[in-house]
Amino acid sequence: MILDDEPFNDKRINVTALPETEVTCKSCDACCCRLEVLLITDTGVPGRFIETDQWGGQRMARLDDGWCAALDRNTMMCTIYENRPLICREFEMGEYECLVERKANL
Predict the structure, then answer these.
(1) Dist CA 79 CA 101 (whole Å)
(2) Is 37 exposed, middle or buried (0-12, 13-18, 19+ CB in 10 A)?
(3) In angstroms, rounded to a whole number, what is the distance separating the alpha carbons of residues 36 and 38?
(4) pTM above 0.90, yes or no
(5) What Pfam families has UniProt attached to this entry (predicted)?
(6) Tens of pLDDT, residues 40-62
(7) How many CA atoms lie within 13 A of 47 on its CB side?
(8) Is 58 helix (H, G, I), strand (E, B) or coil?
(9) Tell me, what's the pLDDT at 9?
C-alpha cells in the first residue's frame, strides 16, 4: 500500500541503470552450435550439412572441433538460417536452455 505522503518515485528502480544482459547471436559464445542436432523433420537443410549417425539417423554435420558446420565463425551467424533444423528453431536465444548451455561453457 502506498501512502499519499510517501514519494512513490523514491521506491522505483531505475531500469535504465541496470546492466545489459541480453543475449544476441552476434554477442553469444554460440554454445548451442556445439550441441549435437538430430534432424527429425525436413526443413531443407542442404545435404552437405547432413551426416548419418551409427544408427542410421540424420544429424547436422560438425567440424573436427565440434562446432556446427553451418555456422559462420567470423560472424557467429547461421549460414542456413532459413533452412535450419527444427531443434535450432525451438532453441530460443536467452531462454532457460540457452542460459544453461552458456553457463556450462563459460
Answers:
(1) 21
(2) buried
(3) 7
(4) no
(5) CxxCxxCC
(6) 988 899 999 999 999 999 999 99
(7) 0
(8) strand
(9) 52
